[in-house]
């Protein structure tokens, strides 16, 4: 589990294609690798990955992950190239401040950045995605975009708006995201559960009426 508060931006150091999976090597400041163990979970662009190896003898350190074909296909990790920046968050531990919302690290879909409007003190992003996911997205609700816990702005029949402050732009790779970029989306689990429960209740009511 994660908080949706991106700890740092890391960089793709190497990509090694294997049979039915890809090894990602991510360079990150060693300050964020303290007490790391093989088998630990780290969210990369919001996608929960398992640490297979790590090295902290140099600065920055490196962390290795094996990413299966299914994950590469369903997320934007398959489009990563060497030197790309990714959002990095260690898993939630007891005592961690929950500054965002509970994020599982299981990506539901990707959205396309369709519009970007920058001003001196904020940035507006418009994301388009498969309409079947819009029933779980509400104005003022939570959503995880590339692992960042954000508040939804206006919702349309094709997507939704985000309003980002400079801190978010500086701390995450959303600051560099360009129109056309695919962004990982995890809808709020509580919202998804409520919507699905209501749908099931209504469906049962229709069959018994």
Automatic annotation (TrEMBL):
BP terms from Gene Ontology: riboflavin biosynthetic process
Keywords of the record: Repeat, Riboflavin biosynthesis, Transferase
GO cellular component: cytosol
Single GO MF descriptor: riboflavin synthase activity
Domain of life: Bacteria
Pathway in which the depicted protein is active: Cofactor biosynthesis; riboflavin biosynthesis; riboflavin from 2-hydroxy-3-oxobutyl phosphate and 5-amino-6-(D-ribitylamino)uracil: step 2/2
Lumazine-binding domain mapped to chain residues: 1-101, 102-198
Lumazine-binding repeat residues: 1-101, 102-198
EC number: 2.5.1.9
Reactions catalysed: 2 6,7-dimethyl-8-(1-D-ribityl)lumazine + H(+) = 5-amino-6-(D-ribitylamino)uracil + riboflavin
PROSITE patterns: LUMAZINE_BIND
SUPFAM superfamilies (UniProt xref): Riboflavin synthase domain-like
Primary role: Catalyzes the dismutation of two molecules of 6,7-dimethyl-8-ribityllumazine, resulting in the formation of riboflavin and 5-amino-6-(D-ribitylamino)uracil.
Name this polypeptide is given: Riboflavin synthase
High-level lineage: Bacteria, Pseudomonadati, Pseudomonadota, Gammaproteobacteria, Alteromonadales
